[in-house]
Amino acid sequence: MSASIFKAYDIRGLVDEELTPDFAFATGVAFARFLEIEREPGTVVIGEDMRPSSPTLATAFSAGVTSQGLDVIRIGLASTDMLYFAAGKLNLPGAMFTASHNPAAYNGIKLCFSGARPIGKESGLLTIEKFVYEGTPMAMRNVGVEKSKNMLEEYVDHLRTLVDVSQIRPLKIVIDAGNGMGGYTAPAVFKRLNAEVIELFFELDGSFPNHEANPIDPKNLVDLQKAVKKHGADIGLAFDGDADRCFLVDEKGALVNPSSLTSLIASRELVKYPGSNIIYNLISSRAVKEVVEENGGTAVRSRVGHSYIKKLMAETDAVFGGEHSGHFYFRDFWKADSGMLAALHAIAALGESKKSLSTILKPFNRYHSSGEINSTVSDAAASMETIQQKFEADSDVEMDHLDGLTVSAKDWWFNLRASNTEPLLRLNVEASTEGRMEKVRDEVLKAIRS
């Protein structure tokens, strides 16, 4: 077993090499022990994605949990946000077997407390890791009970209570499920809509025969863009492997900046909950903060990562949070992220208006962004120090270290963060003009790579 299998927010590794049934069993035992220490409820909800290894690993994990006297509810095939729904609705801790957008050779486990509260390295994952590697004494006790419960329709019903799409105009929607769990949940959600749905890659196939289920990479959205233009669709939706992230394509086939979707949803949530807090991560567009404030809300800046955003949502009672990576968090959804709920907000906004999606989103597209650019470095800390020294003499810029290094000027900003798992620096640049963005981008990249 490799310690690297325990990531910042979940467990993820190569099937058969790192993630085996024995490991899953040991993790189930460790999770049960952890839950008892935390005085959590004595039942665990388990969901699984469409990867061939998921049922076997989930079964081994369940055996580990029940060996410690805790009960298990298996909800079977599920998107990650469906598992969060189950953990929230039933108020039970949960485990989701998925490697999200990773290639077919991988699998993983996302864990949460009761009420879908996150478990990351800073909130329990390190303890669980310690228990796995140390081993857990197998106390003699009654074995827990495993039962099954299908929660798909309850999940769909709950989403429909949060976004009213009952009165939308007729729409034509293309959905690319990427052979992931969107192919399971989307039909149940969209069958009730006043919409013609064109399905792309809805067959559940963990080998991902068409393209990676990773819509943050533009090459994986090409099929969706072509289909939207071919069918004259109003909107295109793309989900990642476990369908907890959503990306949009407008009626022209153009990719929608995730910050624009954050702004759109924020403006809608502020109509429902006037004056509320809205969270955005620090690589989101400046437009998000501006839109929130223009709509009477308070914008709260966060580090990148779901555990930070969910923690901040709890501390500030924020009604919504958006990440540039396509994760969208809702207070009404137990502060958890749901790609499907974000998609329904976009469809509701489109269906309530006679305008096209590009027209609706135009007020939110105020700046020019570089997108995330990765650079391989031998010493991330030293490289970041070099960049800081380069800009700190400039009296017209401000710096902060909320997450990596952020350098801000009147008409541009950039953020530089080190990867948690690889020798990489991740750069995001935004500016008021494309020329200014390119100038700042090239200047920073030259300093990093020289």
TrEMBL record:
<dbReference type="Pfam" id="PF02879">
    <property type="entry name" value="PGM_PMM_II"/>
</dbReference>
<dbReference type="Pfam" id="PF00408">
    <property type="entry name" value="PGM_PMM_IV"/>
</dbReference>
<keyword id="KW-0479">Metal-binding</keyword>
<keyword id="KW-0413">Isomerase</keyword>
<feature type="domain" description="Alpha-D-phosphohexomutase alpha/beta/alpha">
    <location>
        <begin position="5"/>
        <end position="123"/>
    </location>
</feature>
<dbReference type="InterPro" id="IPR005843">
    <property type="entry name" value="A-D-PHexomutase_C"/>
</dbReference>
<comment type="similarity">
    <text>Belongs to the phosphohexose mutase family.</text>
</comment>
<feature type="domain" description="Alpha-D-phosphohexomutase alpha/beta/alpha">
    <location>
        <begin position="153"/>
        <end position="253"/>
    </location>
</feature>
<dbReference type="InterPro" id="IPR016055">
    <property type="entry name" value="A-D-PHexomutase_a/b/a-I/II/III"/>
</dbReference>
<dbReference type="GO" id="GO:0005975">
    <property type="term" value="P:carbohydrate metabolic process"/>
</dbReference>
<feature type="domain" description="Alpha-D-phosphohexomutase alpha/beta/alpha">
    <location>
        <begin position="261"/>
        <end position="366"/>
    </location>
</feature>
<protein>
    <submittedName>
        <fullName>Phosphomannomutase</fullName>
    </submittedName>
</protein>
<dbReference type="InterPro" id="IPR005844">
    <property type="entry name" value="A-D-PHexomutase_a/b/a-I"/>
</dbReference>
<dbReference type="InterPro" id="IPR005841">
    <property type="entry name" value="Alpha-D-phosphohexomutase_SF"/>
</dbReference>
<dbReference type="GO" id="GO:0046872">
    <property type="term" value="F:metal ion binding"/>
</dbReference>
<keyword id="KW-0597">Phosphoprotein</keyword>
<keyword id="KW-0460">Magnesium</keyword>
<dbReference type="InterPro" id="IPR036900">
    <property type="entry name" value="A-D-PHexomutase_C_sf"/>
</dbReference>
<feature type="domain" description="Alpha-D-phosphohexomutase C-terminal">
    <location>
        <begin position="372"/>
        <end position="446"/>
    </location>
</feature>
<dbReference type="Pfam" id="PF02880">
    <property type="entry name" value="PGM_PMM_III"/>
</dbReference>
<dbReference type="InterPro" id="IPR005846">
    <property type="entry name" value="A-D-PHexomutase_a/b/a-III"/>
</dbReference>
<dbReference type="Pfam" id="PF02878">
    <property type="entry name" value="PGM_PMM_I"/>
</dbReference>
<dbReference type="InterPro" id="IPR005845">
    <property type="entry name" value="A-D-PHexomutase_a/b/a-II"/>
</dbReference>
<dbReference type="GO" id="GO:0016868">
    <property type="term" value="F:intramolecular phosphotransferase activity"/>
</dbReference>
